[in-house]
Structures are given as structure tokens and as C-alpha cells.
Design brief:
The protein is mostly helical. It is 76% helix and 0% strand. InterPro entries: BP-dep_ABC_trans_perm, MetI-like, MetI-like_sf. Pfam families: BPD_transp_1. It is a multi-pass membrane protein.
Length: 275
Amino acid sequence: MNKKTLNTALYYLVLVSLIVFSLGPIVLMFVTSFKLKVDIMSDSTAWFFMPTLQNYASMLDDRSLVNNIGNSLYVAIVSTAITLFAGCMAAYAIVRYRFFGRDVASMTTLIMRMVPPAVLLVPVFGIWTFDYEIDGTLNGIVLIYSAMNLPFVIWILQSFIQQIPIQLEEAARMDGANPFQVFYHIILPVIQPGLAAASIFTFRIAWNEFLIANAISDRSTRTTPVYIVNSLTEYNIDWGAIMAMGVLLAIPPIIFTFVASKQIISGMTAGAVKG
């Protein structure tokens, strides 16, 4: 066996290993969601068992879970929309306008994203509870998620705006466009791939975040990660129902990512010129 063949074999071995490690937990979760509790606990029915939809039926019949999924959708969608709306305008202002402390503001946005959510837990809980009294509300969760994701959105959109030739904006102004028209009709269509990428990031963070949501939400405003953790008890863990819940909760982020990814591709090919 020559060196090239050995390198190829090692390459595919590493590739297959990474695929197995990545897809293994997902496949296990999907398969377990169709098992009864007796099949989950039995070693003889690891792969050969009678599939059942009982776990999914019990989850969909749980009104608390349905309400929590609605809470998560509201929080994720609204916080993503607010973050993109504020982030794209802030990024444009940092890139195009000259003002004192512009470089410091740009670097600060990135540094703030490096702060772990656990550091914000105590001050956010105190301010949201005693000063603003918005703890236990969905809008309070939306506000903190928007603030958490805004620095990253500003940072990632700056690189997209910097690649836009300033001549495009100057030409639009010469044609009589005001600053808002330049921004909405020139800048936003061009940075569409960046907006899509940032929306995927913010939506997934808002959908999966647990620590802060657990601290500032109550029974009626719980998100799905909080509901899953609170459904676990020391003496009774229904793994089939939990796995079914995991499969159901994976569907909205997958759909959102698929839709946003199509926007990335269409935005990247929008300026292509046929040769």
C-alpha cells in the first residue's frame, strides 16, 4: 500500500468517524422515540422492536408542552426580528458614518458577545425583577435575548456592508434617494446572505437557551428547554417521551435553517452574470 492510498484510507476513516459521532445521537434519539418504556429498558430490543406513536401522542396531548412550544416560537421569532432590525442599522452606522469612538464601539460589540450567559444571570434577574418588573413575561425574555445576540449580528453584518462599494450609494443619492431609501433598497438586498446567516444564529440561540429563561420565566411563560428539564424527576424519567419531545423540538429550527439557507444561496447568486 503506497502513501497516497494510505492517506486516502485515513481520510475516509476520519470522515466516517465524524459522521457516526455526529449522527449517532440523533439516530438514537429518533429510534428511541418510537419505543415503549419496556423496549427502552430491555437489551434484547435495541434495534428490533415494534414501533409505536404513543410517545408522540402523549406529547401532543400535553397542553403545557403545546403552550411552551408556542412561547419558544414567539420568543425566537420576535427576538430574531428585533435583533436583525437593530443590528443591520447599527452595523451600517458603524461602517459608513464617522464619529468619535467608532472603532471602540465596533470592538466592544464583539467583546460583549464573549461574556458567558451565566455571568448575566444574577444582574438580569435582579434588574428584570426589582427594577423593571418584567420577570415572568415573554417580552422580558425577548428583550434579554435580543441584547445577547445583537453584538454578534452587528459584528457579522459589518463585514458584509464593508464589501459594498460606496459608489452604489452615491449613485442612488444622485438619483434623489434619501438615506432611508438607500439603506432599504440598496444595502439590505445586497447583505441578504449576511442577514440570513445571522437569523439562523439568533433563532437557534433563542430556541435552545435554558439558563436565563429558567431564571426569569414562570409557569405560563416557560420555553421548551425549561419544560424539558422540569419534566425530569429523580425517580421517574420517561425516556421515550423525552426523545419524542426532542424530535418535535428539532423540527422548527430545521425548517427555519432550511428557509434561511435558501436565502443565502439566492443572495449569493443574485449578482451572477452570465458569461
